[in-house]
Amino acid sequence: MAKVSRSYIMMCMLFSILLILGHSVEAGKVRHFKWDVEYIFWSPDCEENVVMGINGQFPGPTIRATAGDTVVIELTNKLHTEGVVIHWHGIRQLGTPWADGTASISQCAINPGETFYYRFKLDKAGTYFYHGHYGMQRSAGLYGSLIVDVAKGEKEPFHYDGELNLLLSDWWHESVHHQEVGLSSNPMRWIGEPQSLLMNGRGQYNCSIAGAHYGNSSSTKCSLRGGEQCAPKILHVLPNKIYRLRIASTTALASLNLAIGNHKLVVVEADGNYVQPFAVDDLDIYSGESYSVLITTNQDPSNNYWVSVGVRGREPKTPQGLTLLNYNTNSPSKLPTSPPPVTPIWNDYAHSKSFTTKILALMGSPQPPKTFHRRITLLNTQNKMNGGYTKWAINNVSLTLPPTPYLGSIKYGLKNAFSLVNPPENFPNEYNVMKPPVNPNTTAGNGVYTLAINSTVDVVLQNANALSENVSEIHPWHLHGHDFWVLGYGDGKFDPTRDERKFNLKNPPLRNTAVIFPYGWTALRFVADNPGVWAFHCHIEPHLHMGMGVVFAEGVRHVNNIPNQALACGLTGKMFTTRAANHTN
Amino acid sequence: MAKVSRSYIMMCMLFSILLILGHSVEAGKVRHFKWDVEYIFWSPDCEENVVMGINGQFPGPTIRATAGDTVVIELTNKLHTEGVVIHWHGIRQLGTPWADGTASISQCAINPGETFYYRFKLDKAGTYFYHGHYGMQRSAGLYGSLIVDVAKGEKEPFHYDGELNLLLSDWWHESVHHQEVGLSSNPMRWIGEPQSLLMNGRGQYNCSIAGAHYGNSSSTKCSLRGGEQCAPKILHVLPNKIYRLRIASTTALASLNLAIGNHKLVVVEADGNYVQPFAVDDLDIYSGESYSVLITTNQDPSNNYWVSVGVRGREPKTPQGLTLLNYNTNSPSKLPTSPPPVTPIWNDYAHSKSFTTKILALMGSPQPPKTFHRRITLLNTQNKMNGGYTKWAINNVSLTLPPTPYLGSIKYGLKNAFSLVNPPENFPNEYNVMKPPVNPNTTAGNGVYTLAINSTVDVVLQNANALSENVSEIHPWHLHGHDFWVLGYGDGKFDPTRDERKFNLKNPPLRNTAVIFPYGWTALRFVADNPGVWAFHCHIEPHLHMGMGVVFAEGVRHVNNIPNQALACGLTGKMFTTRAANHTN
């Protein structure tokens, strides 16, 4: 020991310090956020209402961080009687499945007055958002943007001079409590179409910022000075620059289309993954999706231009959401010379499909395994239950979430927390997806699809006719904990021998949300490489409320360090208290 | 052994059977109830709304049992995101303080999807009720009647031929979630006066069952067939009989006055305790109180008579609640010849005091100890907090309940669950109760008054001027876990030397709720002989929400058998999970 030279020790120390520094650069920063969730009075669309806000704001604060950063959100529930959780939509939660923020799946809802620490790593740059995932609290206004920049020293595969952000949502005047009762009643009372569309939480009800300016509308012009909660957030730009416009949709129901007058949209990112750039005049975006588009401000700088958002896929009864692209050469209050872009007609599905199938992975993106280990076919149907309740079901099982989070009940091997019967992998061959169900009855269930760890899973989402003749709806399905490759879309019933050959295995886009078109199917592939329990569900919030989802579990035995607080309810809570009591008494 | 004769064995067996039978008679029956709490669409006042119901009913089912019975309520929370508890108002919960149903005090709120078993003994006959005790869920409609008959073989100290029951409440069209946000906002938004008064959950908004029949009203007559949810529950009687009319008030706000045209009301019971019978034309009833009155149907049997309920103590903006006393000699639809009894003018406090001071214990009732061990004087003030929030405070502390139930945190000696500083026993001598507070600022607190077990405690409730000049409100204070003797009422500031001499120690009424009149005081005495933690608070729900309450703890070390589920939240929940983890890892 005595022989070890002083310089050797110094060298060792220096090396250690470098190692630590190196590690800290690699690991990214830790970013702390302290959030209180509470109801606030707010006027999202110029009509005052009660909104679920964070730190007194609606929408919640934008999280901006760098790939590799760890974020810690110290979330305090300041609601009076409601639990709360927040889901970090698009973040895979590698190694932290308990931080996924899905009540009944990854954790117990946080009790009023209590604080929960979400701690997770942002592994990948991209445009994300966060939202409530308990009851219909997303619809109540619990959401915000989450934007992850590329790690230091890395570059995006495209250039831009500036950045703009639009978080899209839809808004009802009736409280979500009221909506939930209606959906759960017999007969079901549908929530109807939203009163307004919001861009960054701002919309205008019963008036329009375009007014009757273009002669073809009877709308009253809103009298807004710009400081109101419902005043549109204007997108300020300089001429002859390239802007990256980030767009995410956290709508409860509406499928949307966005267009900017006179400006092409060059799509470069979808759900946090780079795509082969392509230009469009308008962009379809479904609930749960996000995009980045590049726009070049190469139009007449003496004009401003409309940014318009309208409803697709359902007969729209909601006015367009509007804001302005303001060239800084003009006053922001100068109205564009032309009226807002017209949203393509709601049922022009050819237009939607044309857009969706243009989305392909950027060259160099991860490619899917060429084969799969297991294929799960999920038939989406609308059904009746217990003598009249309206439900959505998957392979004739309508998901009813249990009070004990799956992550805990699977980890601890509890036998009575949920149905241990495996849910069906397919549906009867004779089912006619073009017609209403012959037997519309369904049953509630909460079974789990257990996936072999690291196996490749194909999911074919099969759409069908709803309860009424000639009705088939759009459903955007969102997978937690993973991105999947979208191998293909098709019309009618999926036929493996015919359709599998057409799968795109070369450059399918990686996404976390994919739509099924009316009467169509969508084929996905993912690798079950993220130990945890993960929701896979229609992102339309009332549809999920009515049972439209399934649960995947993979490698739960590898999950460690679940905070006990995340499991202090239901049967895991009981397990803890019983164990504690046995050791105390 | 072989020498024991057969007849001796038979005798022993018979004796044992008799013993078991005898015990079972003495112990009373065990009555099971299986309840689901959920929101339902309901029209309490002919306007449809979302109401918190039990088993699809509003109000919840009436519990009818016999003194000595044990009730077991298997309560399942079918709400989507809200916790729930139920308080059994007037039941002392001897030996079962964990079943008192007060969130943050006796238990954790029951999580959505979970079931909690309330199991407690009905130790005393009387007219009681139950209601939610979390947030403002009582106001949302979570309540019902709880009627306990005298034990078999025992007799009431009065005779009657039949029985009628009226559970009184007030109803708002705005949701309690909205109301709560308003109360918690800065500036505070007051909930306003109720839209309607309900009798057994039935009222009429925007119409009257009396209509313009008597010429002095412009009300529209309600067109009701009788089957509607809002159709009044008519009180059917036979002529020349004596009826016991049970009346309880679970209003959120309104102090009420009840009268029956042409009929005297003979008061015989208050809050489950017999009182010296006295006759009145009308009866004041504050939130949290219950009465039994005897009525003799000795009026013209060819007529029906109005039962009317109106608002006292606040300038009424709510129409009278009405139903009919129907002599079975008539059609129930026959309107009385005279208009409904007029409610005494709202601020005729002399009338109220005259009624209240008539209430005296029936001879033979338990008498109070002649001396007390400790006197706690509680000044009730309206205050401002944190730069503008409006609060109510007691000795300048505004109660903010902690997330961990006191019963658990005290039992397990947790140090950080609530403030360990003793709350003040009195208020500054120079405080002028006739004027608004000189310094209106208050602070939030959650300290506990720890009472020596079996000690006699006097509480003097001292009213004062609110924030505005010349305003002092009525507050009905309700004590959990005990009845107290009401020793006296007085005007102005309580002066021990002057006022103590006037205490009624001979036949003060035993009650669980007592009112303080504007600018007045009320003196109570009780024996702290029920191990547990007990809320003592203004029964006006928005006042409690704004901090108007205190917490008493007594002999918690003697409390055993708290179900772990009751403590599976907050720091007790954490304690259990940590202990369990320590023993597992």
From TrEMBL, chains A, B:
Q: Which reactions does this protein catalyse?
A: 4 L-ascorbate + O2 = 4 monodehydro-L-ascorbate radical + 2 H2O
Where it sits in the cell: the answer is: Secreted
> What InterPro entries does this protein map onto?
Cu-oxidase-like_N (IPR011707), Cu-oxidase_2nd (IPR001117), Cu-oxidase_C (IPR011706), Cu-oxidase_fam (IPR045087), Cu_oxidase_CS (IPR033138), Cu_oxidase_Cu_BS (IPR002355), Cupredoxin (IPR008972), CuRO_1_AAO (IPR034259)
Main location class: secreted
UniProt keyword Lipid metabolism, yes or no: no
A Pfam family (short name) is Cu-oxidase
Span of domain Plastocyanin-like = 37-149, 165-329, 435-555
GO terms assigned for molecular function: copper ion binding; L-ascorbate oxidase activity
Q: Name one GO cellular component term.
A: plasmodesma
Q: Which GO terms describe its biological process?
A: negative regulation of defense response to virus; response to hydrogen peroxide; response to virus
Cofactor(s) the protein requires to work: Cu cation
- The EC number(s) this enzyme carries: 1.10.3.3
What is the top EC class of this enzyme, as a single word?
oxidoreductase
| UniProt entry tagged with the keyword Signal | yes
Keywords, comma-separated and alphabetical: Copper, Disulfide bond, Glycoprotein, Metal-binding, Oxidoreductase, Repeat, Secreted, Signal
List the signal peptide residues: 1-27
Assembly and interaction partners: Dimer.
Q: Matching PANTHER family, A to Z?
A: FI03373P-RELATED (PTHR11709:SF394), MULTI-COPPER OXIDASE (PTHR11709)
- Family to which this protein belongs: Belongs to the multicopper oxidase family.
Q: What does this protein do?
A: May be involved in a redox system involving ascorbic acid.
Its name, as the record gives it, is: L-ascorbate oxidase
Query: What species does this protein belong to?
Result: Rosa chinensis (China rose)
